[in-house]
Amino acid sequence: MLFENLNLIEPILAAIKAEGYTEPTPIQEKAIPVLLKIQDSGMLLFTEVFHKVPKQLL
Predict the structure, then answer these.
(1) DSSP 8-state secondary structure symbol assigned to residue 20
(2) Hey, is 24 helix, strand or coil?
């Protein structure tokens, strides 16, 4: 597997390539998708909470 297959955003992928890495270690290959899923879930939760805050408090 390559870093390009891990759904990383372009700036992170570019930084990884600039350092000369092409393939993640076995732990990175397993951990990165989990961390991205957690991040997506956290942003979804933040968005849901933010929309429920009364506008006068923002």
Answers:
(1) T
(2) coil
Residues near 45 by beta carbon (within 8 Å), at least 6 away in sequence: none
Of 30, 32, 31, 38, the residue nearest 13 (C-alpha): 32
CB proximity list for 18: less than 8 A, separation 6 or greater: none
Q: What is the pLDDT of residues 30-55, one digit of tens each?
A: 888 888 887 666 655 555 555 555 55
| Domain spans of the chain, in order of start | 3-57
- For residue 54 the two structure tokens come to 């009364």
* Dihedral (CA of 23, 32, 25, 30) sign: negative
Region of residue 31 (left: phi > 0; alpha: psi -120 to 50; beta: else): alpha
